Amino acid sequence: MKSTHSSFRFLACSTALSVFLYGCGGGSSDKDTSPNPDQGNRVPTVTINGDNSAQEASVVTLNATASDSDGSISKYAWSITSGENVTLNNSDQASVDLTLPDVNGDTQITISVTVTDNDGATARDEHTLTIVDNADNQAPTVVINGVAEVDEQSEFNLTATASDNDGEIVSYFWQLISGEGVTLSDTDKAQVKVTTSDIDEDQQVTIAVMVTDDGGAVAMTQHQLLVKASAQTQVFTLKGRVNNGANSTVNLTVGDQVFTATTNDSGEFSLPVELDESYNSQLAKLSASSNSVFYPEFNFVSQLLTLGELKQRAGSDNILTDDEYFAVSVGNISTTLYYMLDDKESNTTTEQLEKNYGRVYTEVLTMRAGVLHMLLNGNQGEAYPLPTGVTTLEQLFENDELIREFEQRMSDTYPESMAHGQVLRSETIAYPAINETKQLVFSPQLPFMSDGRHFTLNPDGTGSTVLENGSSSELTWLIDELGNLTLEYTSPITLVHSEILIHEVQLVTTEFYAFFQRGNTIEGVVAERFRIVDKDGNVVDDNYGSLRHGGFTEKRNATKLSEADFLGTWLIGDVFTPENAILSEPAVANLMADGSASIEVPITGFYTNNAKWQIADGNLEITSGSGDNETRFTYYILNKNEIGYAFVADVTSGGQQFARNGIMLKQQTATGFSENDIVGHFKEVTGYRLYGHENLVIYDDLIAREDIDEDDRVARIDEDGVLRLETYLDKDTSTRCRSSDNGRCYLSQQTSYRLFAKDTNQYVVLRTIALYTINGDPGYGFSNITRIEKQDGINITQFDYGMLHSLRVREHLPNGQENDYDFSESYVSDGENEPRYSLSVSYANGEYEDTPFYLDNGIAYFTLAGKSMQMSLEQFERDTLTVCLHEAGGTCTDADKKQLDMRWNAAEMPPVQ
Fold first, then answer.
1. CATH number for position 41
2. CA distance 564 to 208
3. What gap in Å lies between CA 639 and CA 620, rounded to an integer?
4. Closest Cα partner for 276 from 318, 312, 234?
């Protein structure tokens, strides 16, 4: 009877356990070395050591002894040259574990290893191993008995109960497979003594035993053990400041615990905290009441990090101050951020908070913070009235349409003397202290409008920077009393040079206003001062600047990650810039386990599988081509699923070119869309909360419509699982077609959705919009990351602004003439107010009318020909929209209901009978 067992790695060399010998002999080999890629580099050497034979259904370890006389070994790659059903474990290490199969008769296999030195030269060796058929000997069995959970600093025993039907057990071998804080004694006996040490946090460990019978057959099993760390009390003091919060009560909430303090006349507070470590992973929320003259009822809230992270930031003095963590101050910007989060009270973990942060953009956050600043401080001594029915910040900030109208109303009367920089200063929070050398990347949110930055900042206030255009400079930095990070360049950095204008733009200083932290990134606004100089170096203009939203991201230590963390598909944002194009295009990179890679640019059709990747000097390098045609992309590692700033070296021209942004999003699934995924109704979640949500509707016959008033598009899924929405136009009339219609119509536009991640009914996708010419040639397009949320039904019961935006309604009159109603976002003056939305009416008699409209509880109100009118949504079906249009204040009758044809962009109102 044959038996297959689970396997693990053993680290001893023992003649009694011949199948687990390390370096205890050598097999036949076939050495090979690669041609020397560099005449100054010597090739390495490698030899495989290990047994020449082993029992079936066992685990064998082989060692590669490699050396390089003029460098070091950077890579190991093991493979099976001949043989089947052999599993390699740790195939990128110096030692490899082989899990051998059951065989019918003695069987030979060949294993090879290739080593690569630090200059790219390689060497190869082969080893032959005979798998011995043990058909006449039945394998033993073994189980481990013992506890599954223990405390730290304890001692106990685990027992291996083994048996052999046709013989006896001759040896035992115990080993710790994974985990820390555990030592084993008496590892060659049936009972092993386990000792746990003092640990900082709970440890999950795996302990294994292998038994061998008198015929050489083995059996193995594993035991999972949870080692519990003793709870330790966290004691530290939280110090901060509440803007507009003198003599205010401050509450710190951590799980079910609340700590309270009172601010002084300056709004400063000191709050002692004492909790055991069981609260470490809980988010800490700081709140305080306002002392604003205008709105004292407002409640300030700051969503902080976890308790454990706060304690760590407090340092050895156990006092957490503004300069140690930027969000400790409960101010306007943290309050604004809190009210922009979804499901605020249910955010209890860092993961939930990070998911929320992914939908917050600092540009929108700044606008919301400006609203709060104006509310708290008033308009030149007078309060801004809140919209009717709004009494709390939550009501205001959760209604996008209300707050947009509120922003517009206040921006018209905001004091012109208040500079934007001053507003930012009043809203920002302190940048964290820099106590060790930091590698930072600034990536602008709109990369095509500005250069990115890569900074090195030292704790002594010095540093350096490199821009994406290759310019660099030394610098000095400081964090001022307001918590702003200011960088001053030793030599101004050239940004733009024009031979026509014979002027160049030079960067002089950078000031960063921190808003909030998203993973390793601190989001905020960069304010930079520039100067213009002529070709002789004379300063033409020394007094202008710019503001941009983006994030400072700290580079991660790559040694904490393994190469396995980088396998898979990545979206490389904003890398390729076509000739004469403004926007850069993203690429898709596939990183394989053997070090190879492929790169694809969806719009341009560029594709290559002639690429390699590696981790070098803490960076991810992707190399395309070779020799004079080599292009290398270097990405600074930010965290496991996000890679930072991209540096591109063009070897052909000998120059250097920087990608604009280079943020990479790792794909979480290798599968694309299926028909079951996409048939139905979707809500499309755009990246900017300011513009709200749109609807993507895909029917069973795969006809799609984006939002309810857009053109029909043909929907299909290609062989790679990419969802494509296609628009066809008649070559002669440019009218819409449902398909190519035997060549009469051509593909005009294609919107592709490439799936990157799936979370229940929500999909993270790369959306690519590509335009085509009448000849079928691809035109330039663009791509971005968005989300599509699947819904069971379309669930539209009333109007919202996104639904009415760009909706055109056509009314057919009994005499055959038509009135057109066009809802849009243009601005229409009406006395002192500036309504954001308008209705433009083109009457059949040639007259034209513009009138503002507004929504209240899903009903649109406007004035037509001097009459106050209202329009409500009665029903939405696949191709029809039923509305009720009548005078305001009246009730809807059947005669007021109008059915609108939604198939071809214009909603058609049938003639009145």
1. 2.60.40.10
2. 24
3. 12
4. 234
Rounded CA separation 788/197 (Å): 49
The pLDDT, as a whole number, for residue 39 is: 58
CATH of the domain at 786: 2.40.128
**pLDDT at residue 261, rounded to an integer:** 92
What residues pair up with 717 in beta bridges, in sequence order? 723
Q: Do 643 and 715 belong together in one domain?
A: no
For residue 912, what pLDDT is reported?
Answer: 40
- Identity of residue 439: Q
Q: Are residues 31 and 109 in the same domain?
A: yes
For residue 675 the two structure tokens come to 């028909």
Token pair of 560, please? 């904490």
The verdict on 262 and 162 lying in the same domain is no
Residue 11: inside a domain, yes or no? no
Which among 607, 633, 602 has a CA at the least distance from the CA of 770? 602
Distance CA 567, CA 667 (A): 10
Structural domain boundaries enclosing 538:
433-554
The pLDDT of residue 21: 27
CB atoms under 10 Å from CB of 792, counted, come to 8
Residue 26 CA to residue 50 CA, distance in Å, equals 5
pTM > 0.70: yes or no = no
* Residue 650: CATH number of its domain: 2.40.128.80
At 651 the pLDDT is 43
Q: In whole angstroms, what is the distance from residue 426 CA to residue 417 CA? A: 15
User: Which residues of the chain fall short of a pLDDT of 50?
Assistant: 1-30, 37, 417-419, 498-500, 580, 649-660, 687-691, 829-833, 904-910, 912-913
Asked if 99 and 33 sit in the same domain, the reply is: yes
Burial of residue 719 (CB within 10 Å: 0-12, 13-18, 19+) is: exposed
Q: How many CB atoms lie under 10 A from the CB of residue 850?
A: 14
> Is residue 2 one of the residues assigned to a domain?
no
Indicate if 627 and 657 belong to the same structural domain.
Answer: yes
Return the ∠ at Cα 514 (arms to 512 and 518), rounded to 5°. Answer: 125
**DSSP strand pairing (249-254 vs 203-213):** unpaired
Give Cα separations from 315 to 274, 320, 440, 818 (angstroms): 15, 8, 22, 74
Q: 450 with 525, same domain?
A: yes
Q: List Cβ neighbours of 729 (8 Å cut-off, separation of 6 or more).
A: 735, 736, 737, 745, 746, 748, 774
Q: How far apart are CA 728 and CA 748, in angstroms?
A: 5
User: What is the model's pLDDT at position 421?
Assistant: 54
Total number of domains constituting the chain:
7
Residue ending a domain, choose from 71, 102, 132: 132
Given the DSSP bridges, would you call strands 149-151 and 218-228 parallel, antiparallel or unpaired?
Answer: parallel
Average pLDDT, the chain: 78
Residues listed for the chain: 913
